[in-house]
Automatic annotation (TrEMBL):
TM regions (residue ranges): 6-28, 40-63, 83-109, 121-141, 147-166, 187-209, 221-239, 260-281, 293-311, 318-342, 393-412, 424-447, 533-553, 587-608, 700-721
Residue ranges annotated for the NADH:ubiquinone/plastoquinone oxidoreductase chloroplast chain 5 C-terminal domain, each copy included: 448-667
Catalytic activity: a plastoquinone + NADPH + (n+1) H(+)(in) = a plastoquinol + NADP(+) + n H(+)(out); a plastoquinone + NADH + (n+1) H(+)(in) = a plastoquinol + NAD(+) + n H(+)(out)
Main localization of the protein described in the UniProt heading: plastid
Entry protein name: NAD(P)H-quinone oxidoreductase subunit 5, chloroplastic
Known partners and oligomeric status: NDH is composed of at least 16 different subunits, 5 of which are encoded in the nucleus.
Keywords carried by this UniProt record: Chloroplast, Membrane, NAD, NADP, Plastid, Plastoquinone, Quinone, Thylakoid, Translocase, Transmembrane, Transmembrane helix, Transport
Name of the coding gene: ndhF
Membrane topology recorded in Swiss-Prot or TrEMBL: Multi-pass membrane protein
Amino acid sequence: MEFIYQFVWIVPFLPFLASILTGLNLFFFPKSTKSLRHIWAIFSICLLSIALIFSLNILWQQINNNTIYRYLWSWIFDKQIDFKIGFLIDPLTSIMLVLITSVGVLVMIYSDSYMSHDQGYVRFFAYLSLFTASMLGLVLSPNLIQIYIFWELVGMCSYLLIGFWFTRPSAANACQKAFITNRIGDFGLLLGILGFYWITGSFEFEILFQRFNELLINHEINFYFVNSCALLLFLGPIAKSAQFPLHVWLPDAMEGPTPISALIHAATMVAAGIFLIARLFPLSQALPYIMNIISWIGAITALLGATIALAQKDLKKGLAYSTMSQLGYMMLALGIGSYQAGSFHSITHAYSKALLFLGSGSVIHSMESIVGYSPNKCQNMAFMGGLRKYMPITGTTFLIGTFSLCGIPPFACFWSKDEIITDSWLYFSSLGWISWITAGLTAFYMFRIYSLTLEGYLRANSNKVFFISPISIWGDLKYNNLKLEFISKKNFILNKSDNFFNMDENENQKENLYFFSDIKKGLFPKESDKKMLFSLLVLTLFTSFIGFLGVPFPQGQLGSDLLSQWSYPMFTNSIAVGNWSEFGLNAINSLSIVFSGIFIAFILYGPVSFSPQNLEKKFEFFLKKNFNPFFSFIYNWSFFRGYIDGYYEIVFVEGTQLLAQFILFFDEWIIDGIVNGFGTITSLGGEGTKYLEGGRISSYLFGLIFCMILLLLFLVLFGAMF
């Protein structure tokens, strides 16, 4: 068994090898590599599949043995400094290895079809393998230095993949935004690492935790300094996992290819922050103020992400804000000490969100042949609708992913999210209310996305030019379809355009109309091919059954589910699950708000209206009369991303530009002005003096005598005054 653990380095090495070989061949032999591109894709998939098999073996050994293994080698050795590299194997590591490799393999299989017509196909697989290898190296790291190295590699890969289509300005801006935002968190992480090294004298997790607890018990450390270092340390996960206020990069990251969106949101980029907080849980658990900060940041992020997702028209951005909200749930769970619930939700959410993103990619892939390749068209839910009858497998799998993310039993996220909501109520009622309300909002916006995408009828159909206005979040689908109704091409003579007219923020209350006149005639969406459907079906199995790992057994005692037994060597849940009757009552509490959100979404956006016509009119009149300002505020809040991006634009972007202009002015007119002023004065003085040099001695004598007389007069007058 130990023999297997000694060769765990093979797991990150295999995808790293695939990335290096693919990249080198693409660089030195571009033509031959591109001609054999499918072979290189199969090569990458095979190596990662071997890593998956190895990870499953390690997980099985952990289940049977429940032992922590560490293997370390000296990297930099000195009298005062001893840096080591190696790997750490425990239940958290083994579960994350299986999660990353399984999602990575499925994303690669999916990408082989999704990216088949892209010119950067080989480059994409090289980046994808490097991304997976970086995340695998991160979860195997036994110390903070090694984690920081792979942390930066994960950030670099995300920069490359978000900006994969770098010729598109929006993609280039998005990858820069993600990179700069994460640099803020990474700088804080580096300062926190150095601070704790100064306190404990070690980067190794085991030694660091042990020394920190000893110093804390003996009151030998400064309380404020320790909390400051811990806050800086957790600034990295806040940025990487898109927590408020460093969440602004996540929606723009959707500019990358859809398979990358699935990998970032499921098993790599955003999971890195949650993993680091889980890894450092013994450290934060000893600092109650930091735990409170983490829990409240998570709660605010969960609610903020859910409210912003309410009125998104872009399919991928709606799912992106959903990820932000669910990451807030995980952060909330870790902040209240519910280690098992937070870790469990990261697993269930990973498979569910990977399923939803790959399902959205299948939908987008089918819409591209109808509305074009612009993200403003093929990702816009206003063009979709009724796709389930054209794409039954994609529609069914997307519905299962929606059920799971909403927290409907028996799907995966129900078991983890319900546990977080229950623990939040027990910890602090305000956090319980926030998590409960967020669950209802999640159900509403997810079924809104599902209804607008897959139910109703196709709104981008064939031979007509049409206007679209933003879809109201409170109007029913019948009313929305009237706004999206096709207008005959004979009635309007419009020039073809590929771009949206920009929405005027000063007139956002008005109906803003956009037009698209290049819709392909007579085309309908088609189901994706077998490779893409294979990934969707496998992820559907995970989404349906992975949640049963956390189902409490009838005895209802702490640690009475499989997941807590596996994670026992690290930590068990700090709040007991309770018996089945208590579990049922807690489930009814969370399901009540979930089904309320689904019901409202189905009434407003569903394909069938249950209200009689006169009742529907009265209901619309009631909304307009009493709640129109409220709903307008919610819509504008969601549409403009909570106005946070606007404030950041004013404060940071425009503020930085003003500061740069002021520095430029100061440099040109003050610093350079003083130097140039002395030069100008000297030049003018010399220019004026040269006219006095006529070469006549009589003139020189006259000037000398005249100046002496003036000097004497000045001295006489000055002496008379004093």
